[in-house]
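Have a close read of this protein, sequence plus structure tokens, and explain what the tokens say about the fold. Thanks in advance:
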Amino acid sequence: MLPSGTNRFRLNREKVCPVDGSYIMTVTQDGQYLGVSGPAELQIINTQTSSKVASLKPGHAPVFGALSPDGRAAVSWGRESGDVQIWDVARSAIVQKLPALLCNHAAFSPNSRSLLVGTGAEMRVWDVATWKSRYALPCKAAGFYGFSAFSPDNQLLAAVTTRSAVRLTEASSGREIATLEMPDHLGISWLTFNPDSTKLAVAVTTGPIQIYDLRLIRQELAAMHLDW
């Protein structure tokens, strides 16, 4: 608890990582590696030693990217590129390019077996083992910077495919389970699952964060024989 009259606090700083500017940061599931995208590269940092273990330079700027939870792969993209680049982190080499016109975000599933790539037109999920498309979810708002989140148990995908609604789908197939409409059509700014995948938190542009109890939603769907 903060002392009375205090509105800020300081965290103890254990290490300083050697990065110059950052846009997106992702960390591996074991916490050992940190992926930091910046002006010209996606850097992979060992969090135990604060040393740079890989520098992934796709040749465009700025560089946005994400590290897979198992630390083996990474994805990078640019603001105006027509594809996303898949990297073998150990070799610092591009091993695949996936079509994605004006990608605005990408995310690996917690088990590192799927990769979601979002554009203004769709969110497409790829099989990491084969790099074949599994399914695509169309986005209705042209130019919209959508958001997505896989549940920690890898069962669900929550995708913001319009400015004010979340499409809840089965992560493996894309089968729609439910659509969660925000009150008063509020714009969505972020979303995330809790650690046991039973709740979904959705941040909106104004007003309180919306918390959805997925156990209650599942009970209601089960009564209609629509459980996942």
